[in-house]
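USER: If only I could read backbone structure tokens as easily as an amino acid sequence. It would mean a lot if you studied the pair and described how this chain folds. Here is the record:
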Amino acid sequence: MLTVGMKHEKELTTGPEHSARNFFPDLPDVFGTPYLVGLFERVSAELMAPHLGPGEQSVGAGMDLKHTAPTPLGMKVRAVTELVEVDKRKHVFRLEAFDEKEKIGEATHIRYIIDAAKFMQKVEAKKG
């Protein structure tokens, strides 16, 4: 059962595959914001996964993010998520990220529990 106060952490070592330059060549060669978004989504999904029923998945539905400090490639980044609200299928998380020197970002993230089969039916119907 998913309950308010649950926490989970995820760490990764940044590399060239996490560079902001992968999105636009004139950006700094540092840990890119889109990768921070992905890390925040992953750590929250990982927290939820063991508590989902058969045929259920979670999907991200929104994120309010602040990426507050740069991280050189090669440094480790640690993301911490905490479940702060549960409203039926809606789950709200508060997140923070840290590199080896300082806090680098924070976010509020919303995820919903979905019926995977119904969700994919909608996706297929959208294809036409």
The beta strands are 7-13, 56-67, 76-87, 90-98, 103-115. DSSP finds two helices and five strands in the chain. The mean pLDDT is 98. Residues 33-48 form the longest helix (16 residues).
